[in-house]
Amino acid sequence: MNVSFTKKQEEYISNQIESGDFQNASEVVRDALRLHEVYRHRVIQDLKAEIEKGWNDKSSSRSVKDIIQAKKNKINNV
C-alpha cells in the first residue's frame, strides 16, 4: 500500500519519531488510525444519541424558518 503525505504531515511524523515516542513512521500512522477510529465511533454514537433524543422529545412549536432565523440572530450577535 502506498500513502502520500503533505510536507506538513511528513514533518509531524518525523517529529514524533525524533521525540522517541515512536520507532518509525508506521507506528505513527497506526496510532493515528486507531485514534481516528475511536474519534469517529464517538462522533457517530453522539449523533445517534442526539437523533434519539429528538425522536423521543416533544415536538417544537417553532417552524423551520423560526429556527433558522434564531440561529442567524445568534450568529450576528456574537
Automatic annotation (TrEMBL):
Which domain of life, per UniProt? Bacteria
Write the record's keywords in alphabetical order, separated by commas.
Toxin-antitoxin system
- Could you tell me which Pfam families the record lists for this protein? ParD_antitoxin
Whether Plastid counts among this entry's keywords is: no
UniProt-listed InterPro entries? ParD, ParD_sf, Ribbon_hlx_hlx
Concerning its family, UniProt says: Belongs to the ParD antitoxin family.
Q: What is this protein identified as? A: Type II toxin-antitoxin system ParD family antitoxin
Organism expressing this protein natively? Chryseobacterium terrae
